[in-house]
Design goal:
Blueprint lengths: L11 H23 L15 H26 L9 H26 L6 H23 L9 H18 L2 H7 L5
Helix pairs in contact: 1-4, 2-3, 2-5, 2-6, 4-5
The protein binds protoporphyrin IX containing FE.
Amino acid sequence: MSVTAHRSTSFTPLLVPLLIGGLVAIALGVFGRIHAPTGFAVGPAGFSAALPMKAWLTTGALVLAAVQVVSALSMWGKLGVSIPPTVHRWSGRLAFLLTIPVAFHCLYALGLQYDVPRVLAHSLLGCFFYGLFTAKMLALPKRGTPGWTLPVVGGLAFTALVGLWLTSSFWFFTTIGFKI
Ligand code: HEM
């Protein structure tokens, strides 16, 4: 059965996934504000410190997410080449997994900061990213959601990850350098 077989125009089936996604984003933001930052969360796992570890893991997540977008275009017949859906699924899963130790460090060790516009944008994008990811995963198995649901929610999640990368890894690589 093709990707679009059980889609419709009704917005109602999307309400719960979007609501829960919104609650996840808000909960992360509130935690990021009320939790006392510890300055430490995860070991650098072979990198020289947490910052380069986070910058490189985020870059890995972005590359995998780009593979996921390209494979999605192929699944929707927009590319003219056929990429197996498993590539889409696994690149998405691995991209998400790579963000977890990074975001855990951000939220637990640093918290939601808004003294610098770059860091404020970054912190909000971080919360938004997980809210969108949650909404996408909850909408995926649902029947009767509008045909634009996955491209739009998936596209927004990818855009949030690009914004996260620009406000962190790109800043790190252009300010501190390609340190490991
Ligand atoms: C969930 C909410 C998030 C919050 C509140 C948050 C907050 C922060 C803060 C306050 C910093 C320090 C910024 C600085 O002083 O330079 C930071 C750094 C960083 N964050 Fe996040 N972050 C979040 C999610 C994420 C996610 C999802 C990623 C990657 C997928 C990420 C990647 C990074 C990286 C690579 C750095 C180090 C570079 C830097 O210092 O800017 N963050 N984060």
